[in-house]
Protein 1
Amino acid sequence: MNKKYQLHVAKVKPVWLRFLILVIIGLPPITGWPLTLFATAKDPLHNLFMWLSYGCFIWLFILLNTGFKKLLSYLSFAFLLALITCLVGAGIRNLIGFIQGASRQDMTLVSIRMLSLFICMVSVIPYSLFFINCFSVSSFISRLDFSTVKNHRTKIHLALALRVFQHVGDVTISLLDVWREENPKMISPRFSDELWESRLSPLAWLNWMRNSAVTWCLAMIMHTFEAIPYLTEEMKNIINFRENR
Amino acid sequence: MRGNLDYAIIQKKVTRVIRLSFNELYIWKNLSHIHMVESRYFVTYEDLVGYLELKTGFAPPQIIEGKGLFLGKFNKWFTNFEDVSSENVNWRCIFPDPKLNISYPYPIDEITVACSLCSSPSAYDQANRILNDYHLDASLSKRQTMTLSGGELLLLSFAKAQGLKDLTETLYVCTPTQWLHPTKYFLLENLIKEYSDSGKTVSLLLLEGEQIETAPDNDLQEQEQVSSVQVESLPWSLYIKNLLKIFDAQTFPKNSPEKIIRYVPADFDREFESPTLVTGDNGVGKSVFVKMLSNIYQPTTGRIAIRCLGNEGYARVLMQDSLDQLFGETINDHFTRVFKFDKAKGKQARELYEKMLDELRLAIKTDVRLRKMKLAASNSGTIETVLQVKFALVCERLASKPPLLILDEPDWCLSRPVTGLFTSIVVNAAHKIHIPVLIITHLRNWYSNLYKSVINLKIMENPQEVHIEQIN
Amino acid sequence: MSNNWTLGKTAVVAALTGLSALGTMIIRVPIPVTNGYFNIGDVFVVLAGLWLGPVPGLIVGLVGPTVADAVGFPQFILATAIIKGLEGFVVGLIGRHRGIGVGRRVIAASVGGFIIVAGYFLFEAYIYPYLGSYVPFFKVTDIGGAIVEVPANIAQAVIAVAGGVALWRPLAGSARPDE
């Protein structure tokens, strides 16, 4: 992308101004304004077109800030969620409507509603991802100044909480690697040849689901908790050091 | 010689075979003028951790102790934890697993906070300077900690330890050579010098054999009787075509650059003899390479494949830090859970495990050094040692009949004689069922009487290109 | 910072918050009718309440699932924050007393589960449609969708109760850390 047109909202300082800019850009999904001013109850397609225009604006805004590759990754996530939600949602609603003997007009309204939800999701999800990416936990940590004794206990608690929170993410993502390695068939952990041959396979599968959920929740807890004594004792020593100095 | 070296304890712990002359070897010889350094050698990881707990008064729960014990011990630690200690506990450890030391989003944050805590006027500048001392460049400090290799994390732990120097009187460094490539040992010397110059004490806790790698005099190496069983070779071949892996740039929580690894030559089709070593510097991409072999990572473009007799599919890997993948109270419990829906394979894994233990018992009988060691030779299946856990996890993988078994740093948490024993028993068991073995290691000499071929990975002029070399 | 709130508690609360957020984010089973989803994040909220008490339960419930909702499902942030926060707090409040048995803790967790089901029904059937008449952002559910989602929320509550108690037992044993 031509750098001449690049925007740097993520670098706007002070932070509150960046927050304000992002809130203003996100006003339509948050409040509906100003799109509600042009909405009309009679013509749902008109409303759809307005949301579509807003979606295009958001995509362009993200493109100018992050580049094409990042926009694509946001969109792939948004489309995945929106497609699952809306296609299956439309299917079930139509099925319920069919059972209840709903009119053709009602069915059309369901489809339009799902379509508008789809467009709303593919606009709002990239926006929320971009919003989160505009604020750095890392720079927040680096701004924590521990060099003064004043309020250092609160800062140490805060630093520890952020540190552990980060650690949870690392642990869980590496567990996903383990999961992948241990599931060559990508179906169930870890070996399942007999499972699919059994006549009671649905029950066995449920049993496996329960066992594996508890096992992997425990694994997440154990991996996460393993580092806590090390991290906490380190912080405790820091408090002792500073208070005894 | 070091002033506070307790030879009696060393001899008691390590048995008579450990020669005091080990301390004269290259890497630690450079430190011999520093009286603040104490080094101790242990035959087993459990002995090392026990000693560390005794010295520091800090006994954290460890996953390898088993689920029940771990959770109970954690709750006990939590219940008794107080922010202010009655006695002035003053310690700083670089533990066997450096990942436990570094957990901020980016390494630079961890070092910055360490410097800030020590009341540094410009913590950020100081952190950058320290990173520079450890040859950790700016791009590395902007990568997420979870993307870093074990060696890189250990170097970051060194940098952090330097940043926190004012907070402690004693630094404990545990099993550093198991993470570091020999060319990086001098950075540990830098850290030790830094502490010693400030009048602090440094304690090196090592597993037997950790120092042998850079010994200039190989006579000692020849004298070393590495416990191992004779192994036969097994042919296998590796095929690589235009292999490329790209790790996308990250923007959350902060921008970090894209990482590209291109393996050259683009067209690689060679035959190897198992057991095969994979060697290379820290951060060269050894782990990424084996993760692609075992389908944990998919290549961005190109292809990597293994050709071997009979077995198909992807390689299975025992990662260096996978010891905590053992679920259940006992080994049997673990096999029951894992093979819940494939009892035939479960039976096979149990049989393999029993056979390996039999070989282990036999080796212990014939090796005077190992007789006093607790090597998980009991039949009860209770989880007692790292070695036992490693055997169990290897058996689980072998039971799935992969085309290749990969051992990522099998020497981790094991001393040299125990590593020799472990790998030779595993290689023999794998070869019997026609599974070749690939061993990733920094400590090539530890396997000198075991390996049959070597794959070396190295970065030349272009930092994005990893060269694959075959050394036979 | 209160004196009896130790660094250890901060660390464990942060860990459970993170686990709750990831448990909500990673395992998402979409419920198409209401555009929502169910997850296992509640397991850790119940665990926090049972193990650590009402305030940590409140924090874990308030922050963890809300962080997860911020990515992809921002419409549900308000409902999630209130319902899950309340769930953690109430579970901690009922299950906090010294020496109480597993049965009482199961009841505490079940009350938490009931809060999930009733809370989401109230929000989706009445509060969101009401708010939606003023702010389109909240116009995502109606009473029909709320009824359809009840069974899924019951399933989520059962998973939360069973998982929370199952994890609490080996972790805390017979005593809570501050007892």
Protein 2
Amino acid sequence: MKILIADDSRVMRQIVVRTLRQAGFGDHDLVEAADGKEALDMANAEKPDLVISDWNMPHLTGIEVLRQLRAAGNNVKFGFVTSESTPEMKEAAESSGAAFFIVKPFTAERFDEVFTPILG
Amino acid sequence: MSVEVEVNESDLAEMVEQVWESYLDPEGVSPLIPTYDENQPSEVHSSVSITGSWSGHVVYASSMAAAQRAAAAFLAMEMDEVSEEDISDTLGELANIVGGNVKAMLPSGAQLSLPQVVLAPESSARYPNAQRISGVYGIWEGEPVSISMWHSSSDNKEEEGE
């Protein structure tokens, strides 16, 4: 499967990639986007099976990316990895069709718990 | 009276501990050892601003060696392989993670800024109309690291009973 990791922080993308490997998902095809606009473009062009997105990003926020994808009829599995989490954000994520909400800092165990049902 | 800060020193310490457990010391061998010295020196710092229901800044500051060590831990590299960009990105992310966790505990309606990184001591920074209200100050592998919260007085409006 192809996984798109969207985060404006290069170190955080690296940590997400490493944590995916630690949780046993390193064999999947991993692609990266460095801001919300790139995430949207790549979600359309690369056709990933899963998008793991930061919330707070330049150009487009993660929730804007998700909403634009859904508005265009793209139903790719999409969820958030974010240092911010408020009940409002979780609600917005859920009502926009997000599949998961992971709060930073996270562990490999948390990734395993969330992604095993999605990635098998 | 201003909005009571709902994030105290022990909340901050718990967030910091989680960052160490998850990224900086996953093996549990080199924790941040508290010094309670709010005047300890730093060489680099990063911050995020929070505005809205509560206004202020969350600041991460450390020595250059501690920043290098953090970047090496974040990026799974050796310390001598770490570039200045690696250090900046890591400092920005550290402020972002702690700031995001702080924001989660504040009343709704707070906005978090993108991080700002300065490769200069925290003592060179000025946060106008803001006061340091709490902090975690410690030594990590012999090097100073601190995480502190600054509250801006600009939102000291009557907001009781909201």
